[in-house]
Amino acid sequence: MPVAEIADLRLYYELHGPPGAPPLVLLNGALDTIESDWAGVLPAFAERYRVLAYDHRGHGRTSAARTFTGYNQLAADLLALLDTLGIAQAHFCGFSDGGITLLYFAQQHPERVHSLILAGAQFTNDERTLAMLAKMNPERIATRLPDWAAEMEALHDAHHAPGYWQTLMRQMMQFWPNQPDLTLEQLASIAAPTLLVAGERDQFGHVDQQVAMRRAMPRAELCILPAANHPVMNEQPDLFRIAALGFLARNS
């Protein structure tokens, strides 16, 4: 099992695709793993790119985190992993928290970014995102959404201990109401080609947020996929693949 020693973590990662191909890094969303986010699209990416995917801080097969302070910390984890693996520059694709992490990373380390695909990412919290975050607590999920609770048990508890997914969620709940906290001026400083992808029914990276980011970011493109909620790459995998691979081909 490939593991990188990163700060306070033993970070699990996978490499797919031809070793000499351009690197493409995949970042999972909160409470997700490589498989839950990327199983439907990773094989197509790996036909053309050297794909690096990893379970981020505290998730899945990565070790539990002593601290979980926010997106700057997740961006620092990404930088350390790239340095460990000797990846100087890459294409990046992130879902939800992974996409938000890339917004922070692209501001801090623009020289490392060839292009960005951001799926279901928001740049700030508004009334809609805060209303959704208010429902994101382990007690409610265990009672009201038992199927999701069982999925998180399979993704996380199997690699840690019973009830671990609830501990992980409580760690992340500490910063979710306050981050992301980016401004349109900060978004305007991100010069890398960027594809913004979201489902038309997404309540986190909703259409209004996507339009605002499209207007602010100088090299952004916008793709809204029909009949999809937040996990757009799982609910519309074929359309997501077409949009992502077309964007990467134009910017490779």
Structural features, described:
- The chain is of the alpha/beta class and 252 residues long.
- It has a single domain, classed as Rossmann fold.
- The protein is 41% helix and 19% strand.
- The chain contains 12 helices and 8 strands.
- The chain has an 8-stranded mixed beta sheet, with helices on both faces.
- Helix 3 (71-85) packs across helix 4 and helix 6 (138-144) crosses helix 7 (146-155).
- The longest helix has 15 residues, at 71-85.
- It is globular and about 45 Å long.
What distinguishing features does this structure have?
252 residues; alpha/beta; Rossmann fold; 12 helices; 41% helix
| SSE class | alpha/beta
Please give the order of strands in the largest beta sheet. Answer: 1-2-4-3-5-6-7-8
CATH homology superfamily = Alpha/Beta hydrolase fold, catalytic domain
* pLDDT averaged residue by residue: 96
CATH architecture call: 3-Layer(aba) Sandwich
Low-confidence stretches: none
Note the total helix count. 12
* Form type: globular
Rg over C-alpha atoms, rounded to the nearest angstrom: 17 Å
The arrangement of helices and strands along the chain is EEEHHEHEHEHHHHHEHEHH
The portion of residues forming beta strands comes to: 15-25%
For the biggest sheet, the summary is: 8 strands, mixed
Helix content: 40-55%
The end-to-end span amounts to 30 Å
Q: What's the CATH C level?
A: Alpha Beta
The total beta strand count reads 8
CATH topology: Rossmann fold
Number of domains: 1
